[in-house]
Amino acid sequence: MKPISCFVLFVLLAINDLWSQSSSHKQVFQLNHVDICVDSASFNKILHNTFLRDSFSYVKVFVDSTGSEILLLGKESFVHVLPAKGFFLNRTGACLLVHHSFRWQETNRLKEYLQTFTKDSLYNRPYNSPELSIDYINVYEDTTGENEPLKFIPILQNHSKKNYLNWGYSDNDLEQGIGQKKYMADYVGKETKHKLFQNIVEIFVSVTEMELSRMRPLLNAYGYRETANRFILDNHIIISPIKMKANMREVIFTILLSTPVKRRTILINDNTTLFINDRKAIFTYKIPDNYR
């Protein structure tokens, strides 16, 4: 082989190797679940609704010194229902898109990556209990004076490596990556086997222009593709921000069902409804933006 040909081959191999390395380290994020902060009356009605508990989802309740939280668990995703306490104080009507990394990494590394997309400062909001150790990467907010807290935020949830190892995952599992479907099947596969809630496929959420402007870079960081006023993740999860009207916050989940169901509407309370038709359910929550 001529020297020039060897040189060209060497360069091509080197470029291919660099491309492979960069591809293998590409950040891949998944939507794990959605947080929604509701008023106390809606919280109690959701908690005690028999259809949600018996047929729709596996309902899990967390109780600590500050109160209760509800998980409406499906086969591939879930809704985390919270009262206005702690971080969610004065955030009734808020919707947080909670992502996690396909491959486990240290929180600081993930935060550094996300920070390259946004001018907003990011910080780590840790949560610790006897069972769990979680870091939440959030946007810094100045809530002093008359500044209102954000009510639409894409965030990152990062469980500790110890959590994953305690759940039976190996170091190799964490390096190769854990898909959302497997994550949920390992977590509550038995409990959700006969439940209707399969997966969240679209989220309509009321936002202010300021919220959308600030959160757009982070949606891009998590891998969403923006098209026609919608943000699409992995070709099947759609986030549709809608301009807040008449000072009302509205969050609407379109949920794919595991089996067809006859058309019906479940009025959970004045603020919360669940409409079901065939293989889809529409969960709607509305509340005035200034609700306290």
The radius of gyration computed from the alpha-carbon positions, rounded to a whole number of angstroms, is 21 Å
Order of helices and strands: HEHHEEEEHEEEHHHEHEEEEE
Cα end-to-end separation: 77 Å
Using DSSP, what is the number of strands? 14
* Helical coverage, percent range: 25-40%
Mean pLDDT: 90
How many distinct helices?
Answer: 8
> In percent terms, what proportion of residues is strand?
35-45%
Q: Helix/strand-derived class?
A: alpha+beta
State the strand order across the main sheet: 2-3-4-1-5-8-7-6
Overall geometry: globular
Uncertain residue ranges: 3-24
How is the main sheet built?
8 strands, mixed
What this model shows, in words?
- 28% of the residues lie in helices and 41% in strands.
- By secondary structure, it is α+β, with helices and mostly antiparallel strands.
- The strands form 2 sheets. An 8-stranded mixed β-sheet has the order 2-3-4-1-5-8-7-6.
- A hairpin with a 3-residue loop joins β11 and β12.
- It is globular.
Question: Tags for this entry?
Answer:
41% strand; 292 residues; eight-stranded mixed beta sheet; 14 strands; globular; six-stranded mixed beta sheet; alpha+beta; 8 helices; disordered N terminus
Describe, in short, the structure shown.
The protein is 28% helix and 41% strand. It is built from eight helices and 14 strands.
